[in-house]
Each structure stands twice: as C-alpha cells, then as structure tokens.
Amino acid sequence: MRKKILVSTFILVIALFVGYNITYANDVSLLGYSYDDDYDYDEDEDEEDYEDDYDEEYDGPLYHEIAIKRIIKVSSATQLQNALNNAVTGDKILLVNYVSTNSTVTLNKNVQVVLDLNNMAYTYNAKGNAIVVKAGKLSIKNANIKSKKCVVNIGKNASGELVNGSFEGQIVNHGTLNIYDGSFTRKAFSGKKNSTIDNYGILVVTKGYFSNAYEQTVYNNKKLRTFGGTFTCTKKGDESMAYPAICNGKKGDMYLCDTKVIGKTTAIFNNGKIEIDGCYTSSSKVAAVYNNKTGKMTVYCGKHKISNHKYPAIYNEGKAKLCGSDYAFDYDTHALGMVYNYKGTLTVERGFGIKSSLGVCNDANGRVSLKSARVSASRCAVFNVKGSITISGGNYCTKSGNTVINAREGTLNVKGGTIFCTGYYYAISNYGNASIKNGIINNKGSYYICNNGGNLQVSGGKAFSKRVRW
Question: How many distinct structural domains can be found in the chain?
C-alpha cells in the first residue's frame, strides 16, 4: 500500500511541474477498510432519524443540579452501594474518604441522584465496571476515579451526567449521557475495545479533554453531539490501520461543533452520517478528516490541517459536501491535494476556500461539483486525474502552474466561475474531454487553454489572453 501511495504521489508531483504526457495510476487509494469491520461491537441498536434544532450561538447544555433534599456521607464502596440501594430523588451522596475496591456499585432504581466524589481518589481494581447505572439518573461530580477497564457504564434505560473531574478508564453509554466538563483518558490496555468512550446511545458533550494512547478515543454508533472539547489520539498508525481521535460507525449520527480533534494518523474517520461545524482538525498522516465509502459528510466552516505533504487534509470515498466561508488549510506542499476525492461524490459550495500547492484532486471515477469554491494554489488549483469535474462558480487561481488540469481519463465541464493563472502556464490544460460553456478564463502570460491531444469544445465564456493552444 505504501508503495502505491509513493508512486501515485510521484506521478502527481511530476504532472504538476511538467503538465503533459503523463499516464496515471488507476489506484491511488490510501485506505481500503472500515472500522466497523475491525471492531466486533455486538450492540443491536435500532436505527432512528434524529432532528436537532440548535441555535447558531448554542454552546451546548449547562449543568443544573437537582434540588437536594438530603446529603448522605459515605467512606467505602459498601456504604456507597447501600446509599444507592436506599436512594430517593434529591439525594446527594458525598464521598468523604479514599476508596480502593474490587466491587462494582450499581444504581438500579428509577431515581435522580447526585454522586459527589469530593475529589477523593476512587480506584476500581477489578476488570469490570466501577459504576453502573441500570435505571434512573446519576450525576457524578468532582470525580477522581480510576479503573483498568470501565469507570462508568450507562444502561439502555438509564441516563447519566458527568459534571467535572478526572475519569481514567472507559466510559460506555447505551442510554443518555451528558458530559459537561472533565478529563477523560485511557491509560490501561485491556485487549479489545480500548476506546476512551464507546457510545451506543445518545451522548452530548459540552466541553472536556478526551485522550487515548492505545486506540481510537471515541467510537460512536448511534448519536453524538459535541459543542466544544478537545479529542486527541496519540496512537501511531499507518495507511493500513489508522487510529482516529473520533470514529463514527455505520449507524452513527454525529454533529461536531467548535470542537478540536487531533490524531497522529487520522483525526476523524466517518462511516455513517456526520456534520462538522467550526471545528479544528489536525493529523500528520492519511487525512485530518476521512469520509469512508459508506459515509455521508457535511463540513461547514473550520480549519483542517495535515502536516505531511504526502496526504490530503480531507479524503473522501463517500458522499461529501463542503460549504462555509472561513476554511483554512495547511499551506505545505500536498501531492494528493488538500481535498482528495477517490471514487466518491464531492460538492463544494458556499465560499469554500483552500490555499495549498495542490487544491482539489479527483480520481478513480469520482464526481466533483465546484459551485462556489475559492482555491488559491501555487502549482494546481484543480486536478482531475480520472472522473468528472463540473465547475459552475467560484474563483480558481494558480501562481506558478496550470490552474486546472484535466487528465486523459478525465471529463471537465466549465459552466461558470473565474479561472485565473498569474504565471506563464495555462489557466486550463486539457488531455481528456473538456467542455467550456461559460465563465471567465484569464491568463496573465500565456494561452488561456492548452489542449494536449484531448477533446475540447469551447462554446462560451470570456478569455482575457490568447485563446487556445492546440
């Protein structure tokens, strides 16, 4: 796989500099796997359609403590279990001593209870769950809790709130869980399923710090909403196995807003439905955001960074729509483009902007529609290797290379927009099938179109230099 990437990278770089007589590899895919195939999650959750009505300025839910009727002080796991067994709505259970135990404590009553761990160290030493909520609602605050495996497990008919503090171990949610703040990490390796958070229910995150050194930080296979927070994964992967900070399963429905996501190999890996709004994503390999073949993705404004010139910031194999007004990408040289569409369907609209050496690259019979993009590139703004690209609006500019390259197996349709080359190359360099019906095509120093043995039809548009070099 690495050899294929290196060969494809070399070919694309040569094409940017030379601009003609290049034959292109048919396979420049970076990944060919789905996380759902690699992890054996057995949850049989019903698929539902969710509709959210969040205001644009909404910062996520805030914690409001229930009215406290009585305070029960406990100093051991046994006393804590007794307090949960006899709890009524409005109880606050206050831990007043350090606890080290092998016993699981469980809330199994339909009551609303606050568990204040009072920043006391609570250590669970066995291999199961430290705290289980099977019924009712448990709010945990001022936590300092550790477990080799699971610290909190929320059942299907229960709900929970994690208010603040430190949680070292796994959080598993099958019900409804709100995370308002805190530090969440996974430091102990225990075989499979080493995520910091596994979500099969409804999870809402207001803020917090989430990290993992062994596997993906968050796995979501139902509904996840974030309105802040930082998610990091320090596990190093490669092209055959990326370890994302956030992985969305095939049944996953995810909305990420104003959230920072950082991964060594991949920040976000999507197999389901995802909306990314105003987020910062960063990675040094594979992609900052990877939309797999089963994924449906919408990316609004935000910043997406890749720090390795061999890989794109956004990699699409599924259906993706990029729209917004304040995109920013790393400016380094990127051989596969800052946005790389491989076999997928990609739509770029509403002021999407890229600054890079290579902007948008389309390959493997992918389909790209550029409606209102702003792509400023040093070598090539739009590169169609194999597939179809339609440009109907936007602005595309290159300083020292061909602005648009359409390869032999490419189909290019220009119906609008402005394509501009400020150097001595071409605004459009065509080797395949190209049709120009409208738009403004400008070249400061050479022909505005160079047709290199391709099938070119020009029936409209405005040119501000020599027209066509055949």
Answer: 1
